[in-house]
Design a protein that fits this description.
Length: 477
């Protein structure tokens, strides 16, 4: 009886209250649906630039397979016709950037981790395991000199703009500036407390930037080794890669670690910062893991990065907006290099290939290069007449090329292969482009609004039906 007194004593009253309860539930569900729809659209619209959709490319112009193991280094010749690559098979190989034809192959160490082409186009510097360092004739591969002084693996090499000196980063915590002709170290930089990985020389030739496992990037005077700036923007996370912008005002650095140190599993990123002050300008987190490779476009507007998510990403250097994702590799990308004319990018990978691709133009028919079938008649890469230069003393910190003896050089060989300035557009099929990222159409707000309105209309119709049913029951009672 108590229950009936609380809710009414007639069957009509019980039915009426149930109808009211149904109407209340419908309203609650409608409000929840509308809120969920609009909340979802708001979360997508706040996505960072690197999370927004960008085209993806998976087809290379040239895929070079000359190495017998992971490829760790790659560098363009200044004229853009050739590429030099180095890898865990201990060799440096120079090949035609247009068709992958091998020009020469030279064994330099057990593992060859770094390679750099001199700005004057005549020399290639290579570094590898246990402090191995060599300068090779770019035309023939013949050894011009070897260098001794660092005991750890050489992970990074960079040339001075005048091609007279190069810097090497070593896992013995040092970076050395070498006089090419004298064959000895001019400066040994010891500012880092852990392994030095990649290094970069400023465009004006005055400064060097070194990335270290100690979590910092340091800039210092090339002539004296005096420290200029210590960048700590990565928060102590080991830093692997560093690259200087073409105008010398900015530096980009990326986190990562390899070999005995093991991988970096958290807080990986690439950061763009002011070279003069160390102020962070931009943090790019488009990769899902370590950022082993970084390179600026020649005009300084874009950056290409590569990492252990097996992708290379081209992004705006000012905004961090991802412009293109390259997915042609099946394993870690350890090095990327932009061609001097800005039309192509070369990426070196643990999958054993170097792939050449375009960051902007549709690719022509892909070429897969097997160098054994395209050997040229270049002289043998095994040095027979040029003895290595062994360091015995430390000279003054100020470079003086006039005091250094000139090493014998081999006359450059005449190139028999030419690379056109660009692929012929009439032979290029459409690129494989597909959207990536969270929003499939790029307009999540416009998609969610009609859904919310539709749910609202349906709910209102249901409410109206319940009210009419209640009124009908009232009349019949």
């Amino acid at each position: 009886m108590v229950h009936l007194r609380l809710w009414g004593t007639s069957a009509y009253n019980c039915g009426f209250h149930r109808s009211v309860l149904h109407i209340f539930c419908c309203c609650v569900l409608t409000m929840a649906a509308v809120s969920a729809a609009f909340a979802g659209s708001t979360s997508v619209s706040k996505a960072a630039p690197y999370m927004q959709s960008a085209p993806t490319l998976s087809t290379a112009l040239v895929t070079y397979k000359g190495h017998s193991g992971p490829v760790i280094g790659v560098a363009w010749s200044p004229d853009g016709k050739w590429l030099a690559s180095s890898g865990n098979d201990g060799t440096v190989q120079v090949w035609n950037a247009q068709n992958g034809g091998l020009r020469w192959k030279m064994s330099v160490a057990r593992f060859a981790f770094a390679v750099a082409w001199s700005p004057d186009g005549t020399k290639i510097a290579a570094g590898g395991s246990a402090g191995s360092l060599a300068v090779l004739n770019a035309a023939t591969g013949a050894s011009m000199a070897t260098y001794q002084g660092q005991t750890g693996d050489i992970e990074g090499i960079a040339w001075s703009p005048d091609s007279k000196y190069f810097v090497s980063g070593s896992q013995d915590n040092t970076a050395n500036v070498w006089d090419v002709q004298a064959g000895k170290a001019l400066v040994t930089y010891k500012g880092h407390s852990d392994a030095v990985e990649r290094v970069a020389w400023s465009p004006d030739g005055k400064s060097i930037a070194s990335a270290s496992h100690d979590g910092t990037v340091q800039t210092w005077e090339a002539a004296t080794g005096k420290q200029i700036t210590t960048y700590t923007g990565h928060g102590g996370v080991p830093v692997w890669e560093v690259a200087w912008s073409p105008d010398g005002t900015r530096i980009v650095s990326g986190t990562g670690s390899a070999g005995a140190f093991g991988p970096v599993t958290a807080n990986n990123s690439a950061k763009v910062w002011e070279a003069a002050t160390g102020k962070t300008l931009l943090t790019y987190s488009g990769h899902s893991g370590q950022v082993y490779a970084l390179a600026w476009s020649p005009d300084g507007k874009s950056i290409v990065s590569g990492g252990d998510d097996n992708s290379a990403r081209v992004w705006n250097a000012a905004t961090g907006q991802t412009e293109l994702v390259y997915s042609g590799h099946s394993s870690i990308i350890f090095k990327v290099a932009w061609s001097p004319d800005g039309k192509y990018i070369a990426s070196a990978s643990v999958d054993g290939t170097v792939q050449v691709w375009s960051p902007s133009a549709p690719p022509p028919a892909a070429a897969t290069a097997e160098p054994s079938a395209t050997e040229t008649t270049e002289p043998s890469a095994t040095p027979t007449t040029e003895p290595p230069a062994t360091l015995t003393q430390e000279p003054s910190a100020t470079p003086s090329a006039t005091e250094a003896p000139v090493l014998p050089t081999t006359p450059p060989a005449t190139a028999t292969e030419e690379m056109p300035a660009a692929p012929v557009a009439t032979d290029t099929p459409a690129p494989q482009v597909a959207p990536i990222g969270m929003p499939r159409t790029g307009a999540p707000y416009r998609e969610s609004l009609p859904r919310a309105l539709l749910l609202t209309i349906v709910a209102l119709i249901s409410v109206g039906g319940m009210l009419r049913l209640s009124a009908r029951r009232k009349r019949t009672r």
